[in-house]
Amino acid sequence: MEYNNPTFEIIKELVLKSEELYDRAYCLYAPEVSSILNKPIVSCEHAENLLDNLLTFCEDKRCMELYRQVCRHLYQYYPDSAVFYAKLYIDNYL
């Protein structure tokens, strides 16, 4: 089905750009998450900063999974902080 509606075309372009943005975010944050998961968390500041940034992209399932992985890892070392970020996710996306 082909639409010639200019509004539809604008929305379609926005959706495509959103998908590109989510892809870029995932590619940017996945290595950082891997780095955090492969070592003990000495200071939670880096993990919290990463979670703050990832929260913006949690509409994307891949980014949401990265967020969850960091929260779970953070829980081992800083449970209060991990619970805070889990609640923040729930408040924003559920």
Please, could you describe this protein's structure?
The chain is mainly α and 94 residues long. It has one domain. Helices cover 81% and strands 0% of the residues. It contains four helices and no strands. The chain is elongated, with a radius of gyration of 16 Å. The model has no long low-confidence stretch (mean pLDDT 92).
What is the number of helical segments per DSSP (H or I, 4+ residues)?
A: 4
Report low-confidence residues grouped into runs of 5 or more. Answer: none
Shape: elongated
Written as H for each helix and E for each strand, in order along the chain, the element string is HHHH
The portion of residues forming beta strands comes to under 5%
Taking the sheet with the most strands, its summary is:
none
- Strand elements, count: 0
- Distance between the amino and carboxyl termini: 33 Å
Instruction: Work out the count of structural domains.
Output: 1
**Structural class by sheet pairing and helices:** mainly alpha
| Overall average residue pLDDT | 92
Query: Helicity range of the residues?
Result: over 70%
Radius of gyration: 16 Å
Summary tags:
single chain, mainly alpha, 4 helices
Summed up, what is this model?
By secondary structure, the protein is mainly α. The chain has one domain.
Question: Can you lay out the helices and strands and say which pair or pack?
Answer:
Blueprint lengths: L5 H32 L6 H12 L5 H17 L1 H15 L1
Helix pairs in contact: 1-3, 2-3, 2-4, 3-4
